[in-house]
Amino acid sequence: MQPFTTFTAVAAPLDITNVNTDMLIPARFLRKPRDERYGSYLFHDLRHDEDGRLRDSFVLNEEAYRDAKILVAGANFGCGSSRESAVYVLLDSGFRCIIAPSFGDIFFGNALQNGVLPIVLPEAECIELRAHLDANPGATITADLQSQTVTAGDGKVRRFALDPLRRERLLTGLDEIGLTLTRLPAIESFEQRYAAERPWLDR
Amino acid sequence: MPAEMPPDSASAKPSTLFEKIWNAHVIEQGSADDALLHVDQNFLHEGAFLAFAALRKEGRSVRRPKQHFAVADHYVPTLGREAGIAGITDPEVRGLIDLLEQNAAWGGIDYAGIDDPRQGIVHVIGPELGLTHPGMVITCGDSHTSTHGAFGAFAFGMGASQVKQVLATQCLWQRRPKLLRITIDGTLAPGLSGKDVILAVIAQIGAAGATGHVIEYAGSTIRSMSMENRLTVCNMSIEAGGRAGMICPDDTTFEYLHGRPFAPKQQHWDAAVAYWRTLKTDDGATFDREVKVDAGALVPMVTWGTSPGQGLPITGRVPDPATLSGDARRAVESALAYMGLKPGQAMDGLPVDRVFIGSCTNSRIDDIRAAAAVVRGRKAKIPAFVSPGSTQIKRQAEAEGLDRVFTEAGIEWRASGCSMCVGTNGDLLKPGERSASTSNRNFEGRQGRGARTHLVSPAMAAAAAVTGTLTDVRRLLAGAAA
Ligand code: SF4
Questions:
Q1: What is the pLDDT of residues B18-66, one digit of tens each?
Q2: B373 touches ligand 1 (CB under 6 Å)
Q3: B302 CB within 6 A, ligand 1
Q4: Which residue of A has its CA nearest to B99?
Q5: Using an 8 Å Cβ cutoff, are A141 and A150 in contact?
Q6: Dihedral (Cα; B181, B176, B139, A87), 10-degree rounding
Q7: Angle at alpha carbon of residue B199, lines to B327 and B146, rounded to 5°
Q8: pTM of the complete model beyond 0.90
Q9: d(CA B43, CA B20)
């Protein structure tokens, strides 16, 4: 996994609450291999009309946000299915950071597994940030995981929280399987005791 | 076998079902909030190809193959199943099913393919085969894994990276969730079911109402529910944002499990049940949040919008955005526009184009019986089909003659799979078509681009099929009472 320390990029205001995983990547693309086209499936049906033309009304199609790599969205971002593809499409089109008042739990975990930082800021601060981005199209935001701050051009520095263990793993880009397998003796002794207490689980 | 178990050091303190399961599975405490948990049972479907690819690329293997089970459900066709895998013409779809079979064989994992009598939707067959037990930690790369919590298990969905971790290690680092108890008391009126209960719960607490929480469902309504209806309730925990849903196991649970292929064998049965009986929330145990629901007051539910939280009693009217402001107003406006509805429009009588009865939410034998009871002696006015949740349920329904109730009404009787819940097998609505669907997600485009989904119970879906509109099923049942 790519570590995350600090990231500065153009940020786009996404005025949608309950952005679900079917919006992030419609189910018909789930069968596709993760090749160089993968990023183009991001928000596919919001971005394109039924004839495949770009919709002017969608924020990421606006000239100022063509290079956006950070999203500031509404509450419950990434709700819905467990598809990790919803993170892959973001990552493969360059997004490393999403800011929202809340996230779907599974999406949140999936993002951390892939070096994408989901930042929870209070609803009022997200609205403030979106207003700033609306007023300054193409403005950048800096997300710093070391100092746990979000800095925008409005001069304010906003702090965010993240569980220390999760922060540490993201900062170092740690491989969880590697970490777990260093515990193998403890795992094996747990399993022996567990199985002895539950003979009905023996198949 | 509680007598042989080490005494729980925390046993003096009343604890919840969740805490008992969590504590029994902690291998190592990472931080105050984070632990390495043993996983008893993992389920796999076609979507696992990403996890297997990564696992194989890293040169790893499946550590404990017997604790996994794979089944083809998301991409299987619901028509022409006699032809088996050869009947699938789309090479991409066929390739995904082939890949699951190959990966299962590579990992030494038991696999139910398209023509296996054990085939069905993963969250239907886990319980049906007796793979799902009380007290287990159960995982699957699928958000509706919460379904299995109906047995008193901690069951949750995860993404491909974690599927890979479970395959490689049989354990998972987990953050300890908060606990929410939803107590549902009262007697459901005739014509109502678990689906109406969970749609009402989500309408009450919202689509993010349980974010960060595991939900325990309690109360007299839950206690008197069948396993099938409990599974429906737990299934949609994720639609309320919940990490998992769970119900304390009781005699209903044990009776359901007894004698199933992977249930504890006879010589271990009593010990297993004795242990399972300890898995209840103690009096005085505390939750981070509590919510109460009066089931006696419920009316059949229907969703009107594009989020599962946008639900109403069938007697209700859609909201008027003019009465709202800010994000809430925008959300209602965009949902109404997508759904082709006017502010204040009544739900009862809204014309529907198609009906889908199926999905891991509502495709079990109870659901099919409830739909058949409404359809019996009537004719469908619009295209409709039933996709039973498993091959075994299909056979059972046929043995009860329920397939003929549907086919004589002009409703198609198909094979089992995820089907029009997600449409990855090609069972899709056309743009602009409106469905009454027993599935769990009414997201924009979920049942096809531009498709408009109204989530309902099986009885309400059947009522829509025979009237051609969203209809209060209680009227039809009253008419049929004689
Ligand atoms: S029936 Fe629908 S919700 Fe259930 S597992 Fe299949 S696609 Fe997912």
A1: 999 999 999 999 877 889 999 999 999 999 999 999 999 999 999 999 9
A2: no
A3: no
A4: A31
A5: yes
A6: 110
A7: 100
A8: yes
A9: 23
